[in-house]
Design goal:
2 domains, 434 Repressor (Amino-terminal Domain), two-stranded antiparallel sheet, mainly alpha
């Protein structure tokens, strides 16, 4: 990522994109303990034969993938929602694992996450 250095009043300043600044601020707040990242949604419990309800398991699998990739990309729910063209509430509901996304919504979110991970140089999981 290119950064521009500017001199003002004998001091050097580095210009970064606003989204990068927000990501850095979020990372710093998280590292200092000011922000607690919620745990990943749990998988549904298995029955006596070790089987899990398919729909609930699929919802949680998608939710966990979205959360992990969003965090790896350094995005907040709000940033992901804005970039994907969906509401922040939609991202929150999907990441809870209690709601089923539409194919169109998953495609929008996936497109943004893959681009963000590629830009950051992180590897995306091959979930889809």
């Amino acid at each position: 990522m290119l950064r521009e250095v500017v001199k003002r009043g004998g001091k050097r300043f580095v210009l970064v994109e606003e989204s990068e600044l927000r990501r850095l601020e979020h990372s710093a707040a998280k590292a200092s303990g000011d922000i607690d990242e919620p745990a990943l949604p749990p998988f549904p419990p298995a029955d006596q034969k070790g089987r899990r309800p398919a729909l609930a398991f699929a919802r949680v699998s998608i939710a966990r993938s979205i959360v992990e990739e969003r965090r790896a990309a350094g995005l907040t729910q709000q940033e992901l929602a804005r970039l994907a063209g969906v509401r922040q509430e939609t991202i929150c509901r999907l990441e809870s694992g209690k709601h089923s996304p539409t194919v169109r919504t998953v495609a929008k979110i996936d497109r943004v996450l893959q681009a963000a991970l590629k830009k950051k140089g992180a590897k995306a999981r091959g979930r889809r």
